[in-house]
Amino acid sequence: MKNNDLILFENPHFIVDMMYARRNNMVGRAVYVEIGFGNKAYVHKKVAEKLLSIVPVLEEKNYKMRICDAYRPPLAHSKLLEIIPRAGFFAANPERSNHCHGTAVDVCLTDIDGNNLDYPTQIDAYEEKYSRQVAAGNFDEFFNHLKKARHDYTEASDLQIKNREFLKNLMETHGFSSIEHEWWHYNIADFALYPLAEWKNGEFF
Ligand SMILES: [Zn+2]
Predict the structure, then answer these.
(1) What is the DSSP string of 89-146?
(2) Is 1 part of any domain?
(3) C-alpha 104 – ligand 1 centre gap (Å)
């Protein structure tokens, strides 16, 4: 079985809020619900271990961590690509997406009540107006907005930058690596080391 190392991640210090299981996301569709996957955070067991190692910090700071994407079924990735078929947002195919290997998470920190801390953008740089524009085939304003998602974007508020840098430092000191253009996205080692996991009708294969 290729899915042996993927486990369902559930923990009271984490809020599972998969953005593609709801409609307020950049594609404007609940793709994970459409395919029957729903709001579930499956991750590679090594991702789960690293996330759990963060718990003492969450307890100390009185934070929770919101997980907005984790394992992504290739079936869902293909649908997302159909909706936003532009380089620079979704990986060009499921094989190239760390999410489809269960080795990436999209996360932010929240207060103890689940309110997101202040960051330079929402996760996925989501805003309803950009979602509507993208649905109409107009990508320009959104792709311009995406510069705010970068770790080197400096025009955000001091608090937003502090929160972004705290998250990056937290994740990197617990075994994750960041990517320069999305402050919310964290990987474990190179996805090529881990197999792509397919999912359909409730089964991994
Ligand atoms: Zn991601």
Answers:
(1) TS-SSGGG-GGGGT-EEEEEEEETTSPBPP-SS-GGG--HHHHHHHHTT--HHHHHHG
(2) no
(3) 6
